[in-house]
Amino acid sequence: ILSLAGEELLLLAELKPGRPHQFDWKSSCETWSIAFSPDGSWFAWSQGHCIIKLIPWPLEEQFIPKGFEAKNRSSKNETKGQGSPKEKMLDCGQIVWGVAFSPWPSPPSKRLWAHHHPQVPDISCLVLATGLNDGQIKIWEVQTGLLLLNLSGHQDVVRDLSFTPSGSLILVSASRDKTLRIWDLNKHSKQIQVLLGHLQWVYCCSISPDCSMLCSAAEEKSVFLWSMRSYTLIRKLEGHQSNVVSCDFSPNSALLVTASYDTNVIMWDPYTRERLRSLHHTQVDPAMDDSDVHVSSLRSVCFSPEGLYLATVADDRLLRIWALELKTPIAFAPVTNGLCCCTFFPHGGVIATEIRDGHVQFWTAPRVLSSLKHLCRKALRSFLTTYQVLHPHIQDFLSNATACVSL
Ligand SMILES: *[C@@H]1O[C@H](CO)[C@@H](O)[C@H](O)[C@H]1NC(C)=O
Ligand SMILES: *[C@@H]1O[C@H](CO)[C@@H](O)[C@H](O)[C@H]1NC(C)=O
Ligand SMILES: *[C@@H]1O[C@H](CO)[C@@H](O)[C@H](O)[C@H]1NC(C)=O
Fold first, then answer.
1. N or C: which end of the chain has fewer CB within 10 A?
2. Closest residue by CA, ligand 1 atom 10
3. Which of 100, 99, 97 minimizes the C-alpha distance to 48?
4. Tens digit of pLDDT for each residue in 191-215?
């Protein structure tokens, strides 16, 4: 690999779809998605064939291996001790495109449950939403694997889902019907708003951690920012040269990153539309020099939970980790097949990626961490000389970041 400085990430574990042969015909039109629950106790894996697997986390007792040797784990039924959470299979009946977890505070859930499932004594505390090929959204109770609710309204594939991080049970869905819809699961799962404005299929949506803003991107170059208070368009962000496929807010909501087929990630100040930084994904493997293919088209971008790093996955089969202030990746992992998404474990230390054949890989970078801290200290010092640091949001970000780095 040329010009790819940085450390190589280590493969920690792998999930392999145990594919029933009779369903092979479906796999070509499957799109994959993964998510960790906000409390880090569950991992949801769209493994193909309309099936979501809910896996308790950590994967195994000896999850963090001593030697960090590559490990795989079959997706077969694993027997665990009595009382510990067990793997669940959710049959969604439709191809699954998006998944999102939310905590479900007990009082409303108790009432809803008492109504729908009087036979189940336990209190629900975590739900999973699944966005389906037929435009439906299904809400599942994680502990039991029970289907709680069906949300109908979209006229086409529900491509992405995002819950308010506050646990207020407001769900946003993004669809190929060119709309986003806002659902309130407290109020009998009422659809409370339809967001119109995109002219093409909506690919992704992300709610800021402070629950004030919603970012959406479609098969278009513009990124849309919406108010989560009034559910109206605040502004459009212009800068990408091709379709935008992924977006994520920093943990303090001060920064927004968007990833595009144009091979760039742009970091924005969502309040001013200012483009703070652009991360260009240059092709690094000459063996993949195929001018017909946009080998560095991006698929996914996400912030690390402490907000210091970004992970990106691109069509050149690399997972890259970036320190916010550096222009080249500081760590990477080569993957054997096309990647479609990445997500950090909410307490840090692990990144999950899903490959286009349904495999999930978990990466860890223990050796990188000390040098990451070092690089960030350096980067932050140089960053302090720019005028941008005077911006209150950057001030806020820097104080958080510096606090993290000095840990
Ligand atoms: C791990 O994967 C290899 C090949 O990918 C396979 O031969 C081996 O049996 C797997 N081990 C376990 C424990 O599943
Ligand atoms: C799956 O696990 C359960 C216990 O959790 C066990 O009763 C069942 O027989 C297992 N099924 C298979 C196919 O191993
Ligand atoms: C949801 O819809 C399915 C059919 O698509 C139906 O079987 C199920 O009972 C519904 N569940 C609820 C909770 O409404």
1. C
2. 72
3. 97
4. 999 999 999 999 999 999 999 999 9
